[in-house]
Amino acid sequence: MRHPSRTTFRAAAAAGAAALLALAGCSSSSTSGGGGSASGGGAGGGTLVVGVTSDPDTLFPWKATQFQAVNVLQNLYGTLTELDKDLNTVPGLATAWKASDEGRTLTLTLREGVTFADGSAFDSADAKSSLDKIMDEATAAVAASTLASVKSVQAPDPRTLVLKLNAPDAALPSNLASVNVAMLSSDDTEAALTAKPNGTGPFTLKGRVASQSLTLAANPKYWGQEKPKVAAVEFRVIPDESSIVSAMQSGNVQLAVFNDPLVARTAATGQVSVAKTPQLSYHALQLNSRRGELGDKDVRLAIQCAVDREQVLQTAALGEGEVTGPITSPAFRSDPARRPCPTRDLAKAAEHLAKAGKSGGVTIKTIVSQGEYATSVNEAQSLKAQLAEAKINLDLEVLESGAFVDRWVAADFDAAVALNGGRPDPDGMYGRYFTSKGNLNKVAGYSSPELDRLFEQGRTTTDQAARKAIYDKVAAELEDNAAWVWLFAGYNYTATASGVQGFTPMANGSLQYLRTTTVQ
Amino acid sequence: MRKIIHHRAARRGAGIAGTLSGVAVLVFVMLRAIPGDQITAGLGTEAAALSPAQRVALERYYGLDRPLVAQFFSWIGNVLTGNLGYSARAQRSVLDLTLHSLPVTLELAVLSIVLALLIGVPLGMLAASRPDAPRDAFGQLVSLAGLSIPAFLLATTLLSVLASSYGFNPNGQGFATLAENPGLNLQQMFLPALVLGFGIAAPIQRTTRTAVLEIRSDDFVRTARAKGVPPRRLQIRHVLGNALVPITTMTGLQFGYLLGGAVVVEQIFSVPGIGRQVLLGIQQKEYAVVQSTVLVIALAFVVVNLLTDALYRVIDPRVRAS
């Protein structure tokens, strides 16, 4: 007599194995077809598939701050000025602009023959309506403060736009290049545009499946001399960056931008090449000088002297970046060697602490975001270990990204490990943080009459060399007073599959050169 | 009136209503307890730059300027009339989003449970067939692996290895529903279902092993064997048949868990299920999306429990008799 359990086991095992094989067989037999169709669609059909971790949280350009939303909207909407690959301000919907009346009037000549996606013509009435609405607080547009210097907008004829300014503003042409100042048709409303974008950009919205994909089609009426090279761009949502890498390796995605150096390294295989671009955004230890021990300049300087920035860069970001001063914009870049304690100096740190009467050490409550960006917690731990050697205790509070933003927005922290976005013009980048009336000064935690004066001077000066000298002084003022501790600027990594050509990554992370990209 | 209250169906209905009401209150309160709101979620750190007037305008836009009690009853009132709310991010109603995501998750859950049963039940029977023998150790080892290997690790490893070594990654293509493209859909569902099924197979294997061992020592099994019932029939009909009740209980619980708990695997494999819908809602602080979707998940869980109870009646005559 056979053992009963053996028979049962065989039957059960056979059934299980058969089912598994059937499923596996089903998947493997149809895999090549599925995979082939996707890559074939991308290569042969002129569709470029861009892997993104999230779809846009809004399609209304005046309220878009999310990276993915900005990247999509830049391709749908036009702005009066644009930035070229080197972040120089170049003509956009305005072909020329001229300051007069001692810099208190800016006259822009608008481009002819521009139409919105719905076919209606763009003229100065649309431009005036757009700027007026952005400045209206009821709109709650994020760029309202960018236009703070604008007193009124006039449209004397369809091709001319006149901005009357409260005071000269040399940064204004550059600030007009932001998609948050996109030109909308005067007939459109926020509700209508959120559902169906209507811009003057190189692409139009073709379709969207929420949380899965968003597809743009080339705009045949685009005003630019160079029309988009691909017929369509699909932003495919793959929530996990590692999964985007897998999708690139299997040929399903042709372009992706990563900011995690570790992910970028895994992406660089035979079929995928990765290019790194220095970014305007910068990593910093923000110090709130309006709270506790940090009100003492010497305590802040002690922290500055006790930090080895290169070590933070090496340990937290695999050495992928460059130690930086406050200003990261290529035209105005600060020299990190000119700061007090350009290299770590524990003796100097102890000296500053003694001067502050804190020889026994200080404790600084520091907020850190978990998940906002890849290297945050590693940076915080590296800083904590280094500062402990100078008797400075960073009391780390690691927060979920939403909770971090909430505390940051309320300036409810002594110090914060942060990755802040940069802008091409230093006035737009720091004027709102470090001037006493800046709308982010509460978060910056530092201002001084000297900084107010320098920023004012920078805004009213048009000569580029003179402005560079002014912003060098701004940088020195910030670092001599250890307003914050600037650490390093990282890279963005653009991964492209073989066959993708013509894409130019930018230091501000923009994907505006999708219009020049080809895919085979 | 007393008769009605004591009626089993009415009591069950009252229990379900109580459960759902509790879930509704809990999710509403918990969401408000999370730091931040739709404004900071949408604008990020740029929210710090808002002027007071801009902040007021946005609070009005998102309905945050209304008292919490008014927000709660307005939401509940809408839900009772079939309006689950609207997602500004997706530009679609929550009902519409749920009608697309719930079937995806249900399909994933069913496939995962099928794979879990195909792995867990045979392994449990194998382990129970000779306790403490190598086959038992093997069964326990697989079960331990299922319990201890995190789903995200197994998912990422499978995806990376298959994509880089074999170029196999159907999930890298746009998601296809079962109705749109059954072939591609099954490919896209296979790996996530396998990862989830492997994890769920462990408790099923353990439950099966324990139940089979217990039932095999029962008098009726010995009697059946003495009466000459063939071994296969004995194992399948008498032993496994009676072990089905605890296995069904465990499977029902795991199925319920999958309705909302598969979010990590959904993220990694880009499966647009209901777990991801909740996660996105939480990230964007879209209160109506999260509240209504959690309520739908709770309702689905209740339905699964009801079905499990109904299944007891099918597989166990004693329940029918009682």
Automatic annotation (TrEMBL), chain A:
Q: Which residues form the signal peptide?
A: 1-24
Asked if the keyword Plastid belongs to this entry, the reply reads: no
MF-aspect GO terms: peptide transmembrane transporter activity
Give the coiled coil ranges.
373-400
**Location of the Solute-binding protein family domain:** 89-439
A cellular component term (GO) from this record?
periplasmic space
Biological processes per GO annotation = peptide transport
Q: Which UniProt keywords apply?
A: Coiled coil, Signal
Which PANTHER family does the record cross-reference, listed alphabetically?
Answer: PERIPLASMIC BINDING COMPONENT OF ABC TRANSPORTER
The name of this protein is ABC transporter substrate-binding protein
TrEMBL record, chain B:
- Transmembrane stretches, by residue range? 12-34, 108-129, 141-166, 186-204, 243-269, 289-312
What range(s) does the ABC transmembrane type-1 domain occupy?
102-308
- The superkingdom listed in its UniProt entry is Bacteria
Q: Which UniProt keywords apply?
A: Cell membrane, Membrane, Transmembrane, Transmembrane helix, Transport
Q: Tell me one Pfam family matched here.
A: BPD_transp_1
A cellular-component GO term for this protein: plasma membrane
From the Swiss-Prot or TrEMBL record, state where the protein is found. Cell membrane
> Mainly localized where?
membrane
Gene Ontology biological process terms, A to Z: transmembrane transport
What Gene3D superfamilies would the database entry show?
Answer: MetI-like
How does the entry describe its membrane topology? Multi-pass membrane protein
**Family in the record:** Belongs to the binding-protein-dependent transport system permease family.
Designated name of the protein: ABC transporter permease
What is the protein's species of origin?
Sphaerisporangium rufum
